[in-house]
Amino acid sequence: MLIAQISDIHVTPDLSSLQTLERAIDWLKTFRPDALVVTGDLVDDGWRQGYRLIAECLRSLDCPVHLLPGNGDDAFLMRSELAAVGTWAAAAGPMHFRGAVNGLILCGLDVTVAGQSYGDVLPHLHWLTSALADVKTPVLLFMHQPPFKVGIESLDQVRCRNDGALLGALEAMDRQPLAIACGHVHRPLSGRLGSIPVQTCGSLCPPNPLLLDGRADLPVADAPSFLVHDVTDAGLLSHVVSIPAPRERTTD
């Protein structure tokens, strides 16, 4: 089972990251994943046309698409403009989703907090527990903000809060997720929540610098990227797919 994950497109009127999304979608059309999950921050500054352009791009894929909002999204506009692309567990309120692809459960938890940049899982644990009650097949759990510190202070200030409560809820389940897959960081990284692997997806907009331990703000050469999660009977492998810049045309 191949599940693609795209995150942090941050489309603006200059359309640069939309062009990166189009290149990613072209790659995925050939790759043909079983599903795509987009883990938030699709558009900046509530730009309605940006959501429409993303919807048009995503509709060209021949696979199910699941969508979560990020802290930078306008949830009302996202829900209205992408209703033909994604489906959510309820017609209003948090934009959680639960889907299944050939026995694999894809669960999306909307941890955004209205008017804030941080996330909070606590108000949504009842829904999560109900959505995954008695699940007997593998589960991938998706969120926007990761539920732990990543070592970059500016991002740690706006991470998902109440990670201990999330861990307690997941440990009480009969079957824990194969992994928690997040966005928000604009860099691919891996860690753990208890014994559960946690990964963050790279961004389709420019990546964040690696500001660890107060190190200098050094230039970042990372290309925009996304993830492909390969789920087999042996477990989960997640691959980073980089999207290089388009080649400039040359004249002789």
What's the CATH H-level homologous superfamily? Metallo-dependent phosphatases
The quaternary state of the protein chains shown equals single chain
Task: Encode the helix/strand succession as letters.
Answer: EHEHEHEEEHEHEHEEEEE
Largest sheet: 6 strands, mixed
Tally of DSSP β-strands? 13
What structural class results from the helix and strand content?
alpha/beta
Radius of gyration: 17 Å
CATH topological fold name:
Purple Acid Phosphatase, chain A, domain 2
Organism: Rhizobium fabae
Family: Belongs to the cyclic nucleotide phosphodiesterase class-III family.
Keywords: Hydrolase, Iron, Metal-binding
InterPro entries: Calcineurin-like_PHP, CNP_phosphodiesterase-III, Metallo-depent_PP-like
Structure description:
There is one protein chain. The protein has six helices and 13 strands. It is α/β, with parallel strands linked by helices and 252 residues long. It has a single domain, classed as Purple Acid Phosphatase, chain A, domain 2 (4-Layer Sandwich), CATH 3.60.21.10. Helix 1 runs parallel beside helix 2 (48-58). The relative contact order is 0.17. The mean pLDDT is 93. Belongs to the cyclic nucleotide phosphodiesterase class-III family. Keywords: Hydrolase, Iron, Metal-binding. GO terms for molecular function: hydrolase activity; metal ion binding. Residues 1-188 form the Calcineurin-like phosphoesterase domain.
